[in-house]
Amino acid sequence: MTLNYLRLIFRMSVPLVITLALNLPTFAMAPSSQEYILYVGPYTEHGSKGIYAYRFDASTGKLTPLGLAADSAAPSFLTFSPSGKFLYAVNETSSYNGQPTGAVSAFAIQPAGKLTLLNQVASRGADPAHIILDRTGKYALVANYTGGSVAVFPLLKDGRLGEASSFVQHKGHSVNPDRQEGPHAHAIVISPDNRFAIVADLGLDQLVVYSFNAAKGMLGANPQIVKTAPGAGPRHLTFGSSGRYLYVINELQSTVVTYSYDTATGALHELQSLSILPKGFSGKSTAAEIEIDPAGKFIYASNRAVAEDGSIAVFAIDPGKGTLAPVETDSTAGKTPRNFVIDPTGSWVLAANQDSDSIVVFRRDTKTGHLTPAGESVQLSSPVCLRFVTP
Length: 391
Prior knowledge:
single chain, mainly beta, 31 strands, disordered N terminus
């Protein structure tokens, strides 16, 4: 699973204009303002070898493979430094250097899209599934899924990862004996003012709201606990553009829940819960990713149907109330859309179909939110995470 940062994108063709976008650092590589670099983090058990790079032409929707950017084991989630010089990846493994933990890797981004490994540290828990940076870009926060824990790592000036500055082990379980036998921290989002870190714990059916000390990279000792519906399985989460609402996708019940957010205290209050399954759907499915478009008008949420192609549900956001209204549900033209991403222009959505080994491109109507297949796709074994940098 998206966690959205505000980044400055410098358009090469109009050097005096600065545009605000989401989760997109600058990246000096090519002169065209319509071309971007897409990095893909796949699972590596079935043929993929690490992080791959593609050139994306936002004027046509065409993806051009640039090849393997770096060898890396199961780089299932990626993020970038604010400068665009460094890429950080979790390595979703159950062991590292003989210890029962996954890892976190730091890379320097090279001019041709290649990545140079700077260093790697233990994630402090098995199978890390998510990584974000705080709003200052000085700390990386990691959610260890199987380990059921959260760790914070300082980022050094040369881009390397330091040893953990904070670590919290979750405890407990919830009602699903197969998926919620213990804590499973799945994703983290930082509040717009950088004062709170909110963790979605699938195994506990909880949103855990930590105070965050950005000077020391420390999580507070007495978090607020927000309980979800029993068996919901909160997975990923994202703030709306106003910062007053939080949207959470629940994996096990395939729902998206809207919460009001108190900017002073970090308190969350549930406002609405909606299914993201297609109308008439009666099969088995689990939800995966949630993203908000750059203009803050639409929410997109993916379903991983078991016996058929996956889908992306589209919702319009009420700008005053923060609540959602269903727009449509679209097939991802492949199985198990683990992750998807909206391009920097807001005109395209790219879906990573993990079990179809494909990345499929859709044109997005910025006024209606409607998705239309663009007739463009590429093949890659087990794609999981898609993230753009701007050239």
